[in-house]
Amino acid sequence: NAGVTQTPKFRILKIGQSMTLQCAQDMNHNYMYWYRQDPGMGLKLIYYSVGAGITDKGEVPNGYNVSRSTTEDFPLRLELAAPSQTSVYFCASSYSGNEQYFGPGTRLTVT
Amino acid sequence: AQSVAQPEDQVNVAEGNPLTVKCTYSVSGNPYLFWYVQYPNRGLQFLLKYITGDNLVKGSYGFEAEFNKSQTSFHLKKPSALVSDSALYFCAVKDYGNNRLAFGKGNQVVVIP
What we know:
Mean pLDDT of chain A: 95
Number of strands of chain A: 11
Structural class of chain B: mainly beta
Oligomer: heterodimer
Largest sheet of chain A: 7 strands, mixed
Distance between the termini of chain A: 36 Å
Low-confidence stretches of chain B: none
């Protein structure tokens, strides 16, 4: 099993550009999550999904969108990048909604 | 609302000494508690969890944690720290029935050779 995979590993965006962060898992987990990690701030939940076709907002959803058309994939879309979205983004999945398994992260810089 | 407090920013410990990382939580119902570890430039790795049962939970890499309901704490412990335990440690909590975890801000652990 590859577990949770994320692409790209690094990306630099200009203000106003758009991009999609990809996340896939091969563990047949129903639950998937997107977090951002800022230094000294822990992890903040952006969006999550309890199954294909179902998504819900987390703590910090503004500026982001998600979709969940399959069990395996949970892409995160940034429409108009802003410097405040400079962060490290982690995708995670869970079988039961309890312990979560994380991908390696995407480091995004918006300048 | 559910929340976690990790009161120390950094924990320094000599190699071979006991390691403790503190965590207190707040939930409205019965807590589900978790510890994760993050090595530099990596994602978080699950260490252990408390759902129900024995208050002392054993996990990966020789770590354990003790659930204390009266003190609303879930401190992470290791009897003898290794230099390779140097990492960022996160405590997390959720209420029964909630699909979302609340993470603490993390504790940097530095094990000194």
